[in-house]
Write a structure and sequence with these properties.
By secondary structure, the protein is an alpha/beta fold. It has 14 helices and eleven strands. The protein has two domains: 192 residues, Nitrogenase molybdenum iron protein domain (Rossmann fold), CATH 3.40.50; 120 residues, Rossmann fold. This is ABC transporter substrate-binding protein.
Length: 331
């Protein structure tokens, strides 16, 4: 398994029980308004938000979540959740649903109390999953048709995809809050994330530094069409991988010639690639790349940089710090 593969691993009981991205955001706004963390833009918006919040409380199941795999109805609050997404596992624990998670995939290593097992998200096995008798499975992708296979066993599944933007990430957190009956806790988590993210963005330098985020030795990189790429865009950076991402996949493969020609001022790698910043600096022909010449190659935590969720503020802070510390030639 390559580091690029691992990066990609890691989204009827009443008239207001159908939860879609916009209503999910409204429910968060309502919860925050009730705790003094948000303001309603109008009386109509406030009323709609309060209704959405009420419908999402633990006592008001069933609810229907509009997930990436379609509408998913949960008749009661799930108490035996299997998470096959490291990002979802982090989110579930952060919003207070950790006690409802009975098993998590092999890469769900955070937080420490996560019930990590040998379950695979890359090659999910329906029998192994069903053995835990889950009443909800959360995954990032419908790999091997696992959603349909679990549906045949009457096991509901929510596909919580990797978000394309930071705002989409908040919606993903909101959806899991709705699904697990943790409305107020989720609102608080998102409010804290927003505040910390805004603080990190404000601290970032205003210069549009050219950034190259390399995923592996084959020169796959994160463009602005990926979640991490959207973070760089929010920080005001210019992503050198964008020119190669004609299909807007989020993860194009570059050539050495293209990287050298783009002349990134900051190169970012993760701590789980098989090489170091020094190895990058010593690549033949890279000696005149600005980031190499000025010593601006940084290594970030792979878990944080490849997962969307409550540790997003840490990622933004680390990248903002790296951007602020970029060295430029003297004279």
């Amino acid at each position: 398994m390559t580091s690029c593969d691992r990066f990609l691993l890691d989204q009827p009981g009443g008239t207001l029980n159908h939860i879609r991205p916009v209503p999910a955001a409204l429910f968060l706004a309502a919860s925050l308004a009730l705790t003094g963390c948000s303001q309603a833009s109008s009386s109509e918006a406030s009323s709609a938000s309060e209704d959405a919040t009420t419908s999402a409380s633990a006592a008001d199941f069933p609810v229907t979540i509009d997930a990436a795999n379609g509408e998913v109805t949960l008749d009661s609050r799930p108490e035996r959740i299997v998470s096959l997404s490291p990002s979802a596992t982090e989110i579930l624990f952060a919003i207070g649903a950790g006690d409802q998670v009975i098993a998590a995939d092999e890469y769900s290593t955070y937080p420490a109390e996560a019930p990590t097992t040998d379950l695979s998200a890359y090659d999910p096995n329906v029998e192994a999953i069903a053995g835990y008798e889950p009443d909800l499975v959360v995954i990032a992708n419908d790999t091997n048709g696992i959603v349909g296979a679990l549906a045949k066993l009457d096991i509901p599944t929510i596909v919580n995809e990797a978000p394309a933007t930071v705002e989409d990430g908040y919606d993903g957190v909101a959806a899991l809050g709705m699904a697990t009956g943790h409305v107020d806790e989720t609102a608080e988590v998102v409010a804290d994330m927003r505040a910390e993210v805004d603080e990190g963005l404000a601290a970032a330098p205003q210069d549009r530094l050219r950034i190259y985020h390399e995923l592996d030795e084959k020169l796959y990189a994160a463009s602005s069409h990926s979640f991490i790429g959207s973070v760089y865009d929010s920080l005001g950076a210019t992503n050198v991988a964008d020119a190669a991402d004609k299909q807007k996949s989020g993860y194009p493969q570059l050539t050495e010639e293209a990287v050298i020609a783009a002349d990134p001022e900051l190169i970012v790698i993760t701590d789980q690639v098989s090489y170091t910043a020094d190895d990058v600096a010593n690549r033949p022909g890279w000696e005149n790349v600005s980031a190499v010449r000025n010593g601006n190659i940084v290594t970030v935590d792979a878990d944080i940089s490849s997962r969307w969720g409550p540790r997003l503020p840490q990622l933004i802070e680390s990248i903002a710090d790296a951007m602020a510390s970029v060295k430029t030639p003297v004279g």
